[in-house]
Amino acid sequence: MSAPYRRTVVDAAGWDAAADAMEAGDTTLLSLWAEIGCVHLAVLDAEGIEILSLPCPDGYFPSIGRRHPPAIRLERAVRDLFGLEPEGLPDPRPWLDHGRWGDEAVPAAAYPFLPVEGEALHQIPVGPVHAGIIEPGHFRFTCDGETVVRLEARLGYVHKGIDRLLAGAPLARATKIAARVSGDSTVAYALGFAQAVEQAWGLAPPLRAVWLRAVMAELERLAHHLGDWGAICNDAAFSLMLAHCGVLREQVLRTAATCFGHRLMMDRVVPGGVAADLDAAGMAALQGLIAMLRARVPPLVKLYDDTASLQDRTVGTGRVSPALVAQFGAGGFVGRAAGRAFDARRATSYAPYDGLRFEVPVLQAGDVNARVWVRIREIEQSLSLLEQLLPGLPAGPVRIPPEDLPHGPAEGLALVEAFRGDLFVWVRLEAGQVQRCHFRDASWFQWPLLEAAIEGNIVADFPLCNKSFNCSYAGHDL
């Protein structure tokens, strides 16, 4: 189960006090969301997680973003989705509403990008449709020659109404929706949702299920870190690494299918346990995968480190300062590459990680190269975790039968570590249905840092910087 949390209903003064603490760096913003007539705030402090709720009978609440910039986009989304107005919000533009939600459509060109003044500056619009098979997002570059002076991203193109889809959904349907919020993190999203439900109802899933969840989570981490490593190198014109990493990623996905019946392990993590067990053939496949990766990853690490032309592109490119990472509470490889030693597996010590040995790799450079190296070290840590998980895998059942799950009103949350970073989930249940559920992907606090990372770099380095972040569009746009 997830770690316990504190729950407080506050007035405007208490809400402002929470903003003061975040501005001072005493607490870290985990998420900000709303429902009709009420806004919620989750923060992390020295004592753990606290949720603050502020009733908004008049439809207004004091903006956190006016003093703590990481909250700005979350508040813009709250206003679009629930009509609550953040008083003092520095950026009043819509965020998820692209001018299509009212009575009359507003042309996309009407969106007022932030102005940049200066001689000889020009703008380059990119997207929302891109050349590759990727999700849509618009990037507006303001440049002085080839040097980027400002980048502003406009997202929200894959908003799919997750909040509304989950409201009133039976638990089985809600579980499937959760697993599809961001498809490349399907295990992490399903795990976060399951843990939040289990905390709400005070459930302890079977021990074997808890360990199998960790096996799936580390396989998901391996697959995407390998894929990102190769793709970053490819954007630096080193396609050989893409080919090698692509083969290894494919082997991880095929092993996942052998073990759990699905390449992405979608719908395998459910409230109360898991929906697929690991048999002898799956165990053998996992052991073979670990041996293969142990043999093939080190030569690729040497190849990456010894290729001077590749290092010339990645070292020093796309820097993010440790101070900015700390302010935004950025997790995952973006945060750890710039000095923020945060990993939800360790910070909240959820099982079975509370009994396993692993390191959280942290670097200080904050550049593309550092983000690559954090991924490399996390690949090594995931292999080590799998080597601990497989021999110690407990026997026994893997799931609480769905008919034995409670149905009473309850509320719970979870903070789990996806391959991109920490994923926050909050859920309220009633009569066996989801009354309200909120997800916050790590990308919410990473996308703004990408804008900072590219400043002072050349336009041609944007694909490299962007891939080194690999933020989720779907997980962000909800």
Question: How would the blueprint of this fold be written?
Answer:
Blueprint: E1 5-9, H1 12-24, E2 28-35, E3 38-45, E4 48-55, E5 60-62, H2 72-82, E6 85-87, E7 121-126, E8 138-144, E9 147-154, H3 162-166, E10 169-170, H4 171-178, H5 186-201, H6 207-235, H7 239-260, E11 269-270, E12 273-274, H8 280-306, H9 308-314, H10 322-328, H11 332-336, H12 344-347, H13 368-389, E13 410-417, E14 422-430, E15 433-440, H14 447-454, H15 462-469, H16 474-477
Parallel strand pairs: 1-4, 5-6
Antiparallel strand pairs: 2-3, 3-4, 7-8, 8-9, 10-15, 11-12, 13-14, 14-15
Helix pairs in contact: 6-7, 6-13, 6-15, 7-8, 8-13, 14-15
Features:
478 residues; alpha+beta; Beta Polymerase, domain 2; Cytochrome-c3 Hydrogenase, chain B; 2 domains; four-stranded mixed beta sheet; four-stranded antiparallel beta sheet; 16 helices
Any overview of this molecule?
The model has no long low-confidence stretch (mean pLDDT 95). The protein has 16 helices and 15 strands. The chain starts with a strand and ends with a helix. Strands 1-4-3-2 form a 4-stranded mixed sheet. Strands 10-15-14-13 form a 4-stranded antiparallel sheet. The protein is of the alpha+beta class and 478 residues long. Helices cover 41% and strands 18% of the residues. The protein has 2 domains: 83 residues, Beta Polymerase, domain 2 (2-Layer Sandwich), CATH 3.30.460.80; 279 residues, Orthogonal Bundle (Cytochrome-c3 Hydrogenase, chain B), CATH 1.10.645.10. Strand 11 and strand 12 form a beta hairpin. The chain is globular and about 65 Å long.
